[in-house]
Design goal:
Radius of gyration: 17 Å
Oligomer: single chain
Number of helices: 7
Shape: globular
Strand content: 5-15%
Distance between the termini: 24 Å
Order of helices and strands: EEEEHHHHHHH
Number of domains: 1
Strand order of the largest sheet: 2-1-3-4
Structural class: alpha+beta
């Protein structure tokens, strides 16, 4: 199986681009199989860059930006073909008891729809007042999934930066804000070769 992402071997972190044919994704010591949704995302991101030769379609890389950002692009991607609803239903079956499954799942879908229609980053927990509710907990789990999708999209873009001469300074900046210096160094080494 093709391992991609940031792979540590013998104390050395190496960057391996994520491609549509990848099976595994490694990041900060975690190695997981790419889901069909994640593979679809990699293929979609790669296709946009190959078609346009750039990354303008994705907006910026900081979720703090008021304008289009990668997370608002991601909500568009998830809205296509009802990807978000499928993900929410899968999460719902694993999270909610049978008696609240339908109403709770509907609430999560409404939160997604609000984030999507407002072209905002996917942070539904910002829209929930009761932080002790099962909806809040499910929204947190959904945000974690979106964060992983965002990371995979950025790593896919970064892997194509050299081939298409892309300015990924926004990715470097966001990763520096997260303290991901080792990942920045591994990506830089990859792009310099």
């Amino acid at each position: 199986m093709a391992n991609t992402g940031f792979i540590e071997e013998n104390g050395q972190l190496t960057f391996v681009p994520v491609t549509p044919s990848a099976w595994l994704f490694s990041f900060q010591g975690s190695e997981e199989l790419l889901t069909s949704l994640e593979k679809d995302l990699v293929e979609h991101v790669s296709g946009i860059i190959e078609q346009t030769g750039g990354i303008d379609d994705f907006g910026g890389f900081s979720e703090e930006e008021e304008a289009l950002c990668i997370q608002s692009w991601l909500t568009d991607f998830m809205n296509e073909h009802n990807r978000a609803k499928v993900l929410i239903y899968e999460l719902g079956f694993d999270t909610f008891p049978a008696e609240t499954l339908k109403s709770s799942t509907k609430k999560l879908i409404n939160l997604f729809d609000t984030c999507h229609s407002d072209s905002m980053a996917f942070r539904p927990t910002r829209l929930i007042r009761d932080t002790d509710s099962e909806i809040y907990s499910a929204a947190e789990r959904l945000e974690e999934v979106f964060s992983r999708l965002e990371l995979i999209a950025m790593v896919t873009i970064a892997g194509l930066a050299g081939k298409y001469d892309l300015d990924i300074s926004g990715i470097y900046e966001e990763w520096a804000n997260n303290g991901w210096d080792a990942e920045i160094n591994a990506l830089t080494a990859y792009l310099e070769n």
